[in-house]
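Box S2. Input/output pair 1.
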Amino acid sequence: MSRSENSIFSNFSLKENSPTPLYRQLQQLIKDAMEIGTIQVDDAIPAERDIAADLGISRVTVRKAVRELVDEGLLIQRQGAGTFVKGRMEQPISTLTGFTEEMAKRGMTPGVKWLDRSVGVASPEEAMALNISPNTEVSRLARIRFGADIPVAIEYTTVPRIFLPSPELVSLSLYDVLTTTNYRPHRALQRLRAELFSAEMAGLLGIEKNSVALYMERRSYLKDGRAVEFTRSYYRGDSYDFVTELQLDLHPNRFSNKSKQ
């Protein structure tokens, strides 16, 4: 196959003898190009035939790599126009996962910058959210969450000390720690709304004051019903989407009173 001119992949090659499949290697090339700015938000990536020619691989391999990146929310395909960098991360809200797990699913390196890790007495708001008495000791975590070195959220988490004796136990993932101690949440209630970042929070994320934030409040519970986590997260509205799947209600009248008295 002849190589196309002026393609971002013209000077690269994939390793056929690598244990990493070719389509995975191509996905990493595309992600690397996005991270260093070679291709940016709303830029089109080369056509499948050009990528295949540049890298000496089949179009089937290219198609598989691109399709999975579309499914992850990193790319978007527009009918008759091509495939473009979406530039926004999507997180499903129908499954109970942590930030670190979501980044790993996308092949992105999760990161954290700690703002606070401390122990204290539950505030009235925390006590109400966790259904504990106001004098109960809690561990608090405040951090900036990163995906591929990009700051995407500020997160404040409170956990009763009976479940997390020391906040220093958490280096990256709270859920990893709670899993090892058998206190992994079994279910959660989430509330989302739009807010504006304060000047202080915007400065931490490197964005403009009063930028739109997606505020998410999560209260997580163990199988026995005890509240284990109260988290308030502020996600960048310019880089994060929350998605959920809706299904037709096949029994729309199941709550109506069918009998007339």
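Box S3. Input/output pair 2.
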Amino acid sequence: MKTFALFGAFSVAMMAADLRIGIIGTDTSHATAFTKILNDATAPDHVPGARVVAAYKGGSADIEASRTRVDQFAAELRDKWQVKIVDSIEELCRQVDAVLLLSNDGRIHLAQARIVIAAHKPLFIDKPLASTLEDAREIARLAKAESAPWFSSSSMRFGGVASLKSDDLEGAMTWGPGPLEEHHQLDLSWYAIHPVEMLYTLMGQGCEEVSRISTADSDVIVGRWKGGRIGTVRALRPYGDYGAVVHRKNPKGQTSEVSRKVDGGYAPLVHEIVQFFETSKPPVANEETLEMFAFMDAAQRSKEAGGKPEALR
């Protein structure tokens, strides 16, 4: 009886304590933005229940956006938020309960995730999950083999676009920025992942075929879903607003259209991440994330084939 009472008190104390979060990759503004939301209890968008305590800088020398910011953001984490900067991912995993893999470069996510998965830490992987479909699938395979929970998502999924979703959806179009990065094999994964994720928030899984028209200023990617529904992404360069149009059938069988500009914020995503770390239940199915990468893979092949429709692999 005494042992049970002690165990119960220990469990309550553990539940009351903040989760210790580690960051991999200080080469993105998400590192400091997420930390402020978690660590600053006075912030209007504060998300309680977790705290960033350690970070591994990482960085990619051949990507300017990474190379020129990695030390700056690491210094802010250390000096403003008292986050300990460590020398390896292995050391990071020993000091935390869960991991935010935020590295700017999707090419290195597989190698970094492999270490976290082996340590059996719950893992959030920021966009892009990977730079190729094969790497994305390998992350999923490794995590399944180790029973390690993970998910990946754009913050745009949890913004205003979700309110447009409905059971009578006939089709949808989303738009947003789509700058490209020369080192990412799936070029849409670098930034157009945001409007792609918005489209999947609305349409769900089931895309069968993709075609893509690409110019210097924009891309238009059209997907055909099972049952004949059509979903479209317009990726604009360099940067611009986000938005969505949905098509629904009204009671008379006529199609109506709803259009909305979509604003993104990080707090709803961070809230979902903390809940995931507490429950190990991903708010976005891993299978849906992998289909998004199959969608972008088919779009890449369509671009290379001059716009010819390509089936998802």
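Caption for Box S3: The chain is about 35% helix and 25% strand. The two ends are 57 Å apart (CA to CA).
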